[in-house]
Amino acid sequence: MPTTAVTGSASGIGAAVCAQLEKAGHTIIGIDRKTDDNFTSIAADLSTAEGRQNAIDLVYQQSNGVLDGLVCCAGLGVTAPNCGLIVEVNYFGVTSLVTGLYDALRQGEQASVVVIGSVAANQQVAAPHPMALAMLDSDEALATKLANEDQQAHIAYAASKFAVTSWSRQTAVKWGGNGIRVNVVAPGAVETPLHQASKDDARYGEAVRNFVAPIGRNSEAEEIASVVTFLQSNQASFIHGSVLFVDGGMDAMMRANSF
Ligand code: NAI
């Protein structure tokens, strides 16, 4: 029975991933700000170095140092309390956990890591932004400072998702030889509390509500979780370093010629 740790397990995509992986026979270790009664779970704040280390230590304890899967769903959207937090959770909360759990994943059976990115990673502002470069340089203090000075939550979000996607692909190249697959799932608009908060937001709500995928609707969290569950199975044994858009055609609509 594979053991898989899932961050952001208490809500939205993470909760749907836990339910589907459990059904597929995985033992789940959930990680979120609060513990969950449904499965083994860890309360940790992934926005801080101490919280991340606490999560890593407890996953080692609860998995006996052997992890077959890691799914990083925890994240904040444009309604986060401040822009620095977006960077801290969406980038450093992911990269620290994936790196910190490397030894446990190496002990796992055909281990697989999935990071939840976003279609927003491909926005023009994201890639060259100094905030994204600071993240990829592992300079948390600078990235957070730039995000808080800028106060443009959509840019902090896009930059954090660009950086975490790029980092995941670089990590896939490094880790492939050690038998650990690493992939990114990039959703479009998914009906979760995060997305509802964005739709209700005074600053971003109208743009979010008007950005509709070619397929004509938003997705449910279960439609993202089923792709994650596939990636965590042996049926996906040669998918490595990929970004899977699960977005109803949003990426195709924005950049049909980039693939
Ligand atoms: P959600 O708000 O339903 O769930 C996010 C979870 O992350 C929550 O349980 C929350 O407590 C946890 N979390 C946030 N900050 C944390 C922290 N400091 N420490 C520990 N846990 C923390 O959101 P949703 O929509 O399920 O988002 C999951 C991922 O999917 C995020 O990375 C988000 O950026 C991404 N995504 C979501 C989209 C959407 O339309 N809902 C679209 C594209 C990507």
UniProtKB/TrEMBL annotation:
PANTHER family listed in its UniProt record? DEHYDROGENASES, SHORT CHAIN, ESTRADIOL 17-BETA-DEHYDROGENASE 8-RELATED
Q: What is this protein called?
A: 3 alpha-hydroxysteroid dehydrogenase/carbonyl reductase
* Family as reported in the entry's similarity comment: Belongs to the short-chain dehydrogenases/reductases (SDR) family.
Q: Which organism is it from?
A: Shewanella halifaxensis (strain HAW-EB4)
A single Gene Ontology MF term assigned here is: oxidoreductase activity
Provide this UniProt record's keywords sorted from A to Z.
Oxidoreductase
